[in-house]
Amino acid sequence: MGLTQEKIVKNTKTYYATLEKYGFFNDKLVEILGESFIKAPASTREDLHNAFEGGLIDHLLKVAKYAVYINKILPEELQVPEKSLLKISLLHQIGKAKLYLPKDSDWHKKQGILYDFNNELISMRVGERSVRYIMLAGIELNDEEYQAILNYDKDEEDKQAKWYTTTLGIILRQANELAIIEEKNKI
Question: H-type helices in the chain, by residue range?
Fold first, then answer.
């Protein structure tokens, strides 16, 4: 499928405008993420989700949309601050900025494998790399935000991540899954 260049530009402007509006945007973050962030896919294969140029920012915007929806339907005492919710929704996968490289092989592309992992990067989970970039940019995370980003991509077998997370972490996980469903169904 893919996105038009116009849509990539629109998504990028929306993404950075939202970061700026809520106060977690700075030049250091833009420098760390670089142009590769704007072009980054959300995954490596067509059968996954958003495996195309601009797919990551598109995915992050969808996650933020679903997170806000989920938060609004919760009882007031379970709702989390919108600023915190948007911060983690928009930053939780920035660790993918330089993680994927386009495949050169036509054979792989015909199999739907469009990107490969960048083997020059030290191995980290996406959440871990995202927190690293956030910290390098000098953006502060409170304990709940930190935990939500670190735990969103942990295995279901990780009991600590599954049973001892916060409402913020649960919303992020659910919003991420809903965004993936939307993307796989190309809604």
Answer: 5-21, 27-39, 55-73, 82-91, 106-110, 126-136, 143-151, 159-163, 167-184
Q: Is the pTM of this model over 0.85?
A: yes
Query: What does the pLDDT look like over 103-119, one tens digit per residue?
Result: 888 888 888 888 889 99
Residue-by-residue DSSP string for 110-157:
HTTB-EEE-TTSPP--HHHHHHHHHHHTT----HHHHHHHHHTTS-TT
- Integer-rounded Cα radius of gyration of the chain: 16
Is residue 177 predicted with pLDDT exceeding 90? Answer: yes
Which residue in this structure is represented by tokens 């670190």? 150
> What single-letter DSSP state applies at residue 33?
H
If you search the block for the tokens 């989700």, which residue do you land on? 49
CA distance 185 to 111: 19
Structure letter (DSSP) for residue 77:
G
**How many helices and strands (H and E) does the chain possess?**
9, 2
HSE-CB for 167 with a 13 A CA cutoff: 16
**Cβ atoms of 92 and 149 closer than 8 Å:** yes
Closest to 175 in 3D by CA, of 98, 75, 82: 82
